[in-house]
Design a protein that fits this description.
Layout lengths: L12 H14 L30 H96 L1
Length: 153
Amino acid sequence: MRGQSAVVKPFDASRLEDEVREAVQHNHPYIQALEPVPRTPAPPVPDYVSHREDVSEIGKLSAEAIVKEYEETAKEIETMGNVVREMVQRCEQLTASASAMLKDIKSTAARYRKEGKRMFTEIESCSSATDEVRRLCESFRDKLAARDSEAIK
């Protein structure tokens, strides 16, 4: 190890303050002033309320703040009502559409029944005609057989 004679200087707070002041003066941060935002006047209280004469200014301001919050909430509730109204209209449209579909279904079922009845009647008519032809053929065959048997005797 080397032998050094290090001299420790005592801490000087004023010197530190000077260094900070100098650093701040040399490094000016970019600061931009904001344009003042124009204040919009507060909306008036709703028509359904009015101030009493014997209320303090703080009481009036508090009451106004509360009634405005209630009014905003009431408007949100009305907005929900509009959404529900739209849902009702869509339901009514679906109901009308479903009613038309049911009417079509009933008429289609009626047409199928009518066609089924027609096919039923036609098949039975064909069956009756087939039975009649079969009976006539058997009768004719029996007559021919009887004639042949008489002719042989």
